[in-house]
Amino acid sequence: MKSAVLVTAILLSIGAASAAPAPVADATGNSTEDRVARLERILQAKQQSEFQTQQRLDTLQQEVLDLRGLNEQQSYQIEQMLQRQRQIYEEIANLSSKSTQQVSITTPIGGAQTPASTLGETASYEHAVNLVLKQRKYAEAIPAFRSFIKQYPDSTYTANANYWLGQLLYNSSDFEPAKQAFDTVVNSFKDSNKRGDSLVKLGMIAEKTGNVSSAKIYYQQVLKEYANSAAARLAQQQLSAL
């Protein structure tokens, strides 16, 4: 009886030992803690990769915005240039049309050209402009523009005539009368499309004559009143070089 009980107790002990839970391990022999640690590392690496990817996306998005802004700026500048071209073409077309309608330019016997003072308003202006653009007779163009300004002080071409006169005098280094011509455009023709350019020329004359402080004032005025124009870009270049 005692032997049977003893045998039974031994068998129960062996069964209990066999039934005790063993440490959890995967097929590679790693424990659960190792697997959790490895998964955490994988998760951290994934989060870091996603963060870096988002940073790159943000950078690319900013670059796209910058390029879009640059493209819009260039488009605006091109449009301004095209608009200015159209204005020039329209002015030339108007000159030719009005000249044909109002004046018949004749050449007297002996081959001498009719003096500009005998021409009409439009033809007189066109005559002075042609001395510059077609004939390259700059010295003759100066008195031609002066004559036009004197004879037609209220003409629609008077602002442009003063600008042409100022430019010719500036090119001849005759700065004081050039300044007077550009001042006339700035002060008497505030709606003229030559006013911004005239302010730039006044600044350049001030530079040439050693008055740097006045030059800065003229350039700053252009930047304030004619922002994003060709005159403003030239004024900024001149101002940066001071």
TrEMBL record:
Q: List each copy of the YbgF trimerisation domain by range.
A: 31-102
Keyword annotations for this protein, in alphabetical order, are: Cell cycle, Cell division, Periplasm, Signal
**InterPro entries, A to Z:** CpoB, CpoB_C, TPR-like_helical_dom_sf, TPR_rpt, YbgF_tri
Give the signal peptide as a residue range, or say none if absent. Answer: 1-19
Look up keyword Cell division and say if it applies.
yes
Q: What is its main location?
A: periplasm
Q: Where in the cell is it found?
A: Periplasm
Its family remark reads:
Belongs to the CpoB family.
Q: What is this protein called?
A: Cell division coordinator CpoB
Q: Which organism is it from?
A: Shewanella eurypsychrophilus
Gene transcribed to yield this protein: ybgF
